[in-house]
Amino acid sequence: MQILQYLINGISIGAVYAIIALGYTMVYGIAKMLNFAHGDVIMVGAYISFCVTNYLGLPSIVSVIAAVAVCTLLGIVIEGLAYKPLRGTSSLAVLITAIGVSYFLQNAAQLIWSSSPKNFTSIVTMEPISLMGGQLVITGEVLVTVAVSIAVMVGLTLFTGKTRTGKAMRAVSEDRDAAQLMGINVNQTISTTFAIGSALAAVAGVLLCSTVPTLMPTTGSMPGIRAFTAAVFGGIGSIPGAMLGGILLGIIETLSKAYLSTQFSDAIVFSVLIIILLVKPAGLLGRQVQEKV
Amino acid sequence: MLKIDDIHVYYGAIHAIKGVSFEVGEGEIVALIGANGAGKSTILKTISGLMHPRSGSIAFCGQDIGHTDAYKLLRTGLAHVPEGRRIFLQMTVQENLEMGAYINKEVSQKDLDTVFDYFPRLKERRKQIAGTLSGGEQQMLAMSRALMSHPKLMMLDEPSMGLAPILVDQIFNIIRELHKAGTTILLVEQNARKALQIADRAYVLETGKITLSGTGAELASSDAVKKAYLGG
Q: A167 and B80 in contact by Cβ < 8 A?
């Protein structure tokens, strides 16, 4: 029975990774850059939510909306100020800038909110469900997180598959020049992508801190890296891949913490990643694109 | 309709286009021929705004477009079918056509029907992923995609590239039909024989400069062109 409980916990944290990974994968797929500051946007989202509930005393749903609004704006501003001027330069320059943005956000958070941890109150008020005479407990957080991650995945799939803007994003992702020749404004499309990715980061931040309640300026960085791993694991650029990668990573992490070693859980997670990539370099659901000449 | 005046284009430090001037009048088919690396594609990219000239001017329908962003130009009626087709390989045929009509907000069934009249094969394959099409079908899709925006001027970069002779004939027939239907054509081709056959006027480009110009027939009978581009 214990293992089922671990599985549920793994799926729960995995679903958070999945939401973060979906943002990573969107931005990577369309803007062709690894936004290493993505994890820190999560942290900002969590702080905004924290402040709105604790200092303004507003209900948690308002705090989530505020977090999403602030992070969306933050994403657009970061992209416009830091990444857009580097369009067309080497991807290394963009990558280093992203790391810089990441440190900037962490230090800014430290200035504003100090480095002492805050105790985040979960936004979920649902009572836990006890199954099998209390042997198996499913918390409200688990249900909400899993439901949100599935909704986000389905939503993004429909958005990129059915809407005009979503299709334009896929066009930009495949061939930027050809997309421009179709009359698609590439800069605006990339900016929209960052807005969506950052909004997802805010949601992920609130759910992350509802599951693991300690909030610090560095709260986002490790989950950010794990989610990036999840995105690569599932096949970067692929929406279902990010979902699958996130859930699997959460399960592997939880099981290795439970049965192998708490200290080495990250080492185990990353070893699994290395092995998967050796066998399937494009990730589990990644597409091996073949171009016709 | 299109007037290029003494443009100079650079790739970093490389001076690729060294003062090219030419014109395309409304209703014409104008061909730009020349060897690999002469700068033909660069000129088209500069006209469509993917690159910008360092000096000189480009006017389309009386408007200066030398420094206009590429994505704004389709709305003025200038479509570019780039070298190598550049269709969206992971999207379906239908979605590629929708992208062609991106500026119209909605895809009209009438436009789709028009395109499918020209290229019936695409109709059968509309749900297929574009990457699985043959080379000829991909070229058809690239042209159809450009047609969806009702361009006044269509620039075609190497439409015959890599195609079997029978397909080349088919593509050139369709270019003629499009022209008859009122589209002005600027054609870049390595297949000089074919290009000169359908062109009203043509220019020969050599290492970034125009060296010869005249009507299609004049150039086709010129000794220099015969020797360099028509195999004697």
A: no
For B153, the enclosing helix (H) or strand (E) is strand B153-157
Number of structural domains found in chain A:
1
Per 3-state DSSP, chain B is made up of helix, strand and coil in percentages (nearest 5) of 40, 30, 30
- In eight-state DSSP terms, residue A126 is P
pLDDT of residue A123: 84
B146 exposure class (CB count in 10 Å sphere: 0-12, 13-18, 19+): buried
Predicted interface score ipTM higher than 0.95 = no
Mean per-residue pLDDT, B4-8: 95
- Does any CB of chain B come closer than 8 Å to the CB of residue A164? yes
Tell whether A168 lies on the interface with B, counting CB pairs under 8 A.
yes
Indicate whether A226 belongs to any domain. no
The DSSP secondary structure of A130-186, one letter per residue, reads EETTTTEEE-HHHHHHHHHHHHHHHHHHHHHHHSHHHHHHHHHHH-HHHHHHTT--H
Q: Do B88 and A170 touch (CB under 8 A)?
A: yes
Q: How many CA atoms lie within 13 A of B67 on its CB side?
A: 3
Nearest to B75 among A171, A177, A183 (CB): A183
Per-residue confidence band for A130, with pLDDT thresholds at 50, 70 and 90: confident
Tell me whether residues B91 and A167 touch, CB distance under 8 A: yes
Cα–Cα distance, B130 to B180 (Å, whole number): 28
Question: Are A10 and A40 a contacting pair, CB within 8 Å?
Answer: no
Is A152 part of any domain?
Answer: yes
Encode pLDDT of A20-53 as tens digits: 999 999 999 898 888 999 999 999 999 999 999 9
Is A184 part of the contact surface with chain B (CB cutoff 8 Å)? yes
Token representation of residue A85:
């001027």
Where do the domains of chain B lie, and which CATH numbers do they carry?
Answer: 1-77+186-232 (3.40.50.300)
Contact A179 B90 (CB under 8 A): no
H/E element, A253: helix A239-259
Domain that holds residue A75: 12-114+132-219
What is the pTM for the complete model shown? 0.89
Contacts of A180 in chain B (CB under 8 A): 49-50, 69-71
Q: How many other β-carbons are positioned within 10 Å of the β-carbon of residue A257?
A: 19
**Residue among A90, A181, A187, A287 with most chain B CBs within 10 A, to mutate:** A181
Q: What is the pLDDT of residues A154-209, one digit of tens each?
A: 999 999 999 999 999 999 999 999 999 999 999 999 999 999 999 999 999 999 99
Among A132-136, B53-57, B76-80, B156-160, the range scoring the smallest mean pLDDT is A132-136
